[in-house]
Design a protein that fits this description.
The protein has a domain of 126 residues: 60s Ribosomal Protein L30, Chain: A. Helices cover 59% and strands 11% of the residues. The chain contains eight helices and four strands. The protein has a four-stranded mixed β-sheet. Helix 7 links the parallel strand 2 and strand 3. The longest helix has 45 residues.
Amino acid sequence: MSYSGKLELKMKAQKLRSQGLSIKGIEKKLGVSRSSVSIWVRKVKLTKEQINKLYADKKTGSLRGNYIASKNKIEKTKSLIEKSIADGRKEVGELSLRDKFIAGIALYFAEGTKSSGNVSFSNSDPRALSFMADWFREICRVPENKFRCYLYIHDDLDEQKAKEFWGNLIGVPLEQFRKSYIVKNNTGRLRKVKHIYGVLNLTISDANLSRKIAGWMVALLENNFK
């Protein structure tokens, strides 16, 4: 490129800079190297408004980049979770009655009451409660009138709505719900997880069944990996 050509580009670069255009923008517009633009425009004084605008544009670009990266990460995680669920369903397959029998013992060992006299299972996960209610019916042969429900819920949540939710889910009428345990909400403490329907305790008063389940749990844990 001739000297006059370079001089013309330099003057254009300085003019664009004086108008508040970024070095990157000038580089793109004139098709020259960024290092050349930086040298040409280094003495051009920008107004306070121009500087603020350039900073805002740079910040916006950075935020946009962060947003895109974050969105891509979320999509990737979502895709991995969906694949894990699909793989899990394929690997587990359809459960036989014996599979459900063993799964129920394991769930009860994790979340059930071990004291003699009562059979009691507590959880906030609807899937766990639904599974165990059916397990008690099908495996343990518990009559419908033996189920009792106790709700543990914070005082800033809708107790009646929660009772209706659980009652419909596990098929237990509201008259078989007993007095709820209302927990005072601590407004100064941020709860990471807020169970809008509280925690449900499903209880069956049956000492014989309690001993039977205790025996199943012992037998299950004796069959460890060998």
